[in-house]
Each structure stands twice: as C-alpha cells, then as structure tokens.
Amino acid sequence: GQNIDQPTEMTATEGAIVQINCTYQTSGFNGLFWYQQHAGEAPTFLSYNVLDGLEEKGRFSSFLSRSKGYSYLLLKELQMKDSASYLCAVRESDYKLSFGAGTTVTVRA
Amino acid sequence: AAGVIQSPRHLIKEKRETATLKCYPIPRHDTVYWYQQGPGQDPQFLISFYEKMQSDKGSIPDRFSAQQFSDYHSELNMSSLELGDSALYFCASSPQGGRNIQYFGAGTRLSVL
Questions:
Q1: Are B42 and A102 in contact (CB < 8 Å)?
Q2: Number of C-beta neighbours around residue A105 at 10 A
Q3: Is residue A1 over pLDDT 60?
C-alpha cells in the first residue's frame, strides 16, 4: 500500500516563496516526482528526485530525504500563473506512479 | 514538441454502455500508462504497457481492458459503464521503459449519465 501526504491548501502573495511538503510511506521507492496541474488539465512535470539532496530548476526546486521519507517543492518569486494544484508522486515500481492528494496553491496579488 | 494525444477529449455515455478511449504517445515513447482522476481526487494508476505487453496493473476494474498496439498507441475499453466511472482519464507515456519521466496527455473527460 501507499501513503503520501501533503497539505491540502496554501496561500501566498505574488513574489513570495512557498514550500510544499510531502511525506511518504510506500511499498517501493524508485524516485519522487512533482507535477503541476491546473483544474481540468493534464499534470505537467516539474521535477524529479531519486537521490537525496536538492534539485534546482529555475524558480522551482525540489528536495528529497529518502531516510525520512520526505520531500519538498520550493516555488520562488511566485507569479499569478503559479496558482494550481501541485502533486507529489512516488514511483513505487518501474511502471507505477502513486500520487498524493495534491496541494492547491493560491497566489494573491 | 509533440505531446501525448488523447481522443476523444469529452465523452458522454449512458449506464451500461461501452466506451473506448485512445492514447497516442509521444514519438519514440514505448511505454504508456493509464490513470483515472475522479472529481477533487488524485490520479489513480490503472494499467501500463511496455513494448506492447502489460507491465503493471493497478486498480483497474474487471469491466475495463486495455492494450497497446504495434504503433505503440493504446486503447482503454470500458464496458457496462457505471455512474462512478465518470472521471478524467489520463494517458501518459515515457521512453525506454518505466524508469523515465511520464508525460501526460490532456485527458478524456467521461461523463456517465
């Protein structure tokens, strides 16, 4: 089975920084992904961690600690278009992603 | 760049009818995945195919079946539709088997009335 937890909602101001935490307990682990999803649209790939540490990609960074079963996604210099749901997903086996319930981020002017 | 293409984008069916959803992966991607996302829920893995063989299976009902064809496109067949099958169905694809990033299509919104 799998248990992937992330906060339901977060609100931040344009230009600010927001950190979305994700904890997981899964039967297998082969990498952790972050996806962005606007309502009714496809999840869009943001970042991927398989080793411990920080991966930086422009305004987005993601961190992983495998021993703690913990990851976070850091969004810097928030823009209005960043208002979306952010999904933490664990690759449990080669062919299966298990998703968390998603964190809805609202960016306010 | 070409993306994952799903058709149709919207589908309306009655209870007990059948539906077929199609997925065309990104060129040179040999692995496809199907996910079901109910309203306000996270995507749930249904099934995946690598090189035309089923590679993993999740919470896919027995009423559903899927396959991957020689051109790597995939079809999800759904029979005896129930109201609870109403959801967004996503297909994703990745290159060279499962150990790569999955890229998602825009999804098919199925409404069962």
A1: yes
A2: 21
A3: no
